[in-house]
Design goal:
Shape: elongated
Radius of gyration: 30 Å
Oligomer: single chain
Largest sheet: 5 strands, parallel
Number of strands: 15
Low-confidence stretches: none
Strand order of the largest sheet: 2-1-3-4-5
Mean pLDDT: 90
Number of helices: 9
């Protein structure tokens, strides 16, 4: 049974409305002023409120405004009872959050029709709210599942750490690192176009495909071959027009050689040296279109010797395409300078980077998914 709250300082109106509504099978609660009405609304969460506009103390507009600010009453339908009929007055009521109006003197058929319509909208709002909560719960579970797939930090024989902040609950970034054998480490980070669930699914598909080595004839030690195989498998026409950028590398820890290839992805940044003053910076990137754009895309390998005291950063473009508080866009060069400034033997660099980016960002959440991998080779 729906509960209806009547707020009116006129006892005769209270009695009239209560009698009319109870005949229709509703549970009716009454309040004699705005403050009492707000208290009763907070306690009972009625489906619908009928409130007089002109009352001593809090008037109907003020009651409506306070009711509509309460998240627990977000689905309550609010009807203002008024003898005011001008357009300007109705606009004031709508601006305060009123959902409908009933004119005085009260006509029974109109009252019943507007209450029925209001309760239908209340029920629809509740159903939508329930579905929204279910969807949010499922998205949170999906996001937790995605995070569970990401690799844990590594401390030996080298150090690998990561940070992952999707712009929504689910993001299009994904990364992984694992040993192909005892001497060769595979590392990659990809960024699917778009955000949300449609971007997450291709990312997880790539992760599972590479981690399981499902493409049996593929040479996983040669990055250009891996990108070519992914490009053949994940063409846009088969993947809901979703393409992705990726940086993929294989590190030989015996001869300290890194072989890598990229497909439209930002360069990995290799910082070598014991301090920021003496640091040498290399940008590791090869030509290649994003995976999925063109079936005939070609990919090539790059080679790099890893010097002592080197740190490799692999990241998505969300790490530097950040709108600052003055409205300007941060840059890759500025991000690289931040990475160089942290070239010293401490263990908190990623936290420092993340805090810097959060403070730099002018919004509550990042516009794009943000992922960073940090590999310390010594």
């Amino acid at each position: 049974m729906f509960q209806i709250l009547v707020i009116d300082d006129d006892l005769s109106i209270q009695i009239l409305l209560k009698r009319m509504l109870e005949k229709q099978g509703y549970d009716v609660v009454a309040a004699s002023n705005g403050e009492e009405g707000i208290v009763k609304a907070s306690l009972s969460h009625p489906a619908l409120i009928i409130c007089d506009w002109i009352m001593p103390g809090l008037n109907g507009l003020e009651v409506c405004h306070r009711i509509k600010r309460d998240p627990s009453l977000s689905t309550t339908f609010f009807i203002l009872l008024t003898s005011l009929v001008s357009v300007a007055d109705r606009v004031k009521g709508l601006d305060a959050g009123a959902d409908d109006f009933i004119s005085k003197p009260i006509e029974q058929n109109e009252l019943q029709a507007r209450v029925r319509a209001g309760l239908r909208l209340h029920q629809l709002s509740r159903d939508l709210q329930t579905q929204k909560l279910l969807l949010e719960t499922e998205l949170a579970e999906a996001a937790e599942y995605v995070r569970s797939l990401l690799p844990l930090p590594v401390t030996a024989p080298l150090s690998i750490d990561s940070r992952f902040i999707p712009s929504r609950q689910l993001g299009g970034d994904c990364f992984d690192y694992y040993w192909l054998d005892s001497d060769y480490l595979a590392i990659y980070l990809l960024d699917t176009a778009g955000h949300g669930l449609r971007a997450t699914l291709p990312s997880i598909s790539v992760l599972n495909l590479l981690r399981s080595r499902a493409l049996k004839s593929l040479n996983y030690y040669q990055p250009s071959n891996v990108l070519a195989a992914l490009n053949e498998t994940f063409q846009m026409s088969y993947q809901n027009d979703k393409y992705f950028t990726i940086w993929y590398g294989v590190y030989n820890r015996v001869n300290r050689q890194l072989i890598y290839a990229s497909a439209g992805h930002p360069p990995a940044v290799l910082v070598s040296g014991k301090s920021s003053n003496s640091a040498e910076v290399k940008l590791l990137k090869t030509p290649g279109m994003p995976v999925g754009m063109f079936p005939e895309a070609k990919y090539v390998d790059g080679f790099c010797h890893i010097e002592k005291c080197s740190t490799l950063y692999i990241f998505s473009d969300g790490a530097y395409e950040i709108t600052k508080s003055n409205g300007t866009l941060w840059s890759l060069d500025a991000f690289i300078q931040l990475l160089v400034s942290l070239q010293h033997p401490t263990d908190y660099q990623l936290n420092h980077i993340l805090n810097y980016l959060i403070n730099l960002n002018s919004k509550e959440a990042f516009d794009d998914d943000l992922s960073i991998l940090q590999i310390k080779f010594d």
